[in-house]
Amino acid sequence: MTIQFADISRSVLATEYAVRGPIVARAAELEKQGREIIYCNIGNPQSLGQAPLSWNRQLLALCEYPALMDLAPQLFPADAIETAKAILAGTKHGLGAYSESRGVRFIREAVAEFILERDHIGVDPDAIFLTDGASKGVQTILRLLLSGPLDGVMVPIPQYPLYSASITLYGGRMVPYFLDEANGWKLSRPMLEDALAQAQAAGTRVRAICVINPGNPTGAVLDEANIGMIVDFAQAHGLSILADEVYQENIFLAGDEFVSFAKVLHEREVKDISLFSFHSCSKGFLGECGVRGGYFEYRNVPEDVAAQILKLQSVCLCANLPGQAAMYAMVRPPKPGMPSYPQYATERKNILDTLKHRAIFLAEGLNKIEGISCNIIAGAMYAFPRITLPPGRTDSEYAMALLETTGICVVPGSGFGQAIGTAHFRTTILPPTEQIEKMVKALGEFHLNYR
Fold this sequence. Notes:
This protein is of the alpha/beta class.
C-alpha cells in the first residue's frame, strides 16, 4: 500500500518555510520560460556571483584529493599544502571516513582557539559540535528542549523561518516576541516580559529564548547593553539562550561591533543559564552555503544533559567531513607573513566592502520610494523594508505581482512574522551592484503603479 496524504504527520503538514515557498517556485517557472529573474529571496552568495575564497577552495581541493600535493604542488601555496596535511592528519583517515560524533577534535580545538581569540574567554573543545551548517545545530538543540506540546521557545518577530518550521515540526510552541522597528529593530525588556506573560497565561512552558545577531531579516546589530538585558531577562525567568551568530563578520556601520553572548555571559559570571551559540561558513564573507559547515558551542550545561546532546548527534554519526574542513579554513585563515595572506586579505576586504556598499545603496534607494521605508542595514545581508499596500491587499499578493511584473523575487514579510497592521518584504543585498540598481528602479516604478 502506498502512503497517502492523510497518512502524513500533522506536524509535517503544518510546517512552512517561506524562503523557498510558492513565490520562489513561480520564479523558477518564469526563468524556464526565458524571463530574467533577480533572486533576492535567500542568502546564497555564490549563486549570485560571489566568488569563493581561494584559501577555502585550495584546502578543500587538497583534502579531497591529497595526490594534488605531489602531482601539482606548483598550483598551491606552501602554507595551503602544509595546512591541508595538518587537517588530514587530524582526521586520521581523510575526508572519506566518519569522524567522532562531535567532529574531528583537531578542528574543534581550532574552533575553541577562534572563540578564545575573539572573546578572550576559556573554551572546552568537548563543548563544541561540528554540524552540517548552523541549521542542523539549531534543530538539535530545539529537539532537546521541546519535550511536549506545551513547551515553547521565544523567537524574534520578524524571524528566520528555520525556527518556526522546526518548532512546529517538533510539536512545540513558538512564542513570538516583537523587535522594535522604530528603534532599529532592537529588543526591549517590556516587550519580552509581555510576550512571556502571554505565553504562560496560555499554558505554555517557555524553555528558551532565541536571538539572531546580527539580525535576519532585519539587518540590525545588537550592542552589548541590549545583549546584557537579554541575559538578565533569561536569568530572571530560568530560560536557556539560543544565540544565532552566523553573520558576526557582516558589520557595516562605523562604531558597531559584534559582541557574543558567550562573552557577556562570561563577564557577568552567569552560571545558572545554559547558552547555545551557533556559527556557520555559509554566511559572513565566506558564502560557502553548499559545503554545509557549521558548529555550536554550549555553556553551563550539566554533564547528564551534555550526554543527551552527544546521543542526538550520534544518531547521524557525524557532520560531513568537507564541511568540517571548511570550518577549519574559516577559523584558521592565513596570518600576516604567510604566503596566502595577501590574497586572502584582499579577497576578504573586497567582499565585505562590496556588501557594505550594497547595504548603503539599497537602504537609501528603498527610502526614496514613496510608500516604502527601510531601516539602516547595519549588518547581516538582508533588508526588511516596510511597505504601504492598497486596502485589502496582502504582502504575499504584492510579492507575487512584483515577481510577475518585474522578475524580482523577494519573500513576503508574513513569512517571517510582522507586527499586526504592517506589511514588509525581505530582500538580500547579494545581487551584483548593477542588478541592485536595476531592482531599485524597477521596484520604485512597480510600487507607484501598484498603489
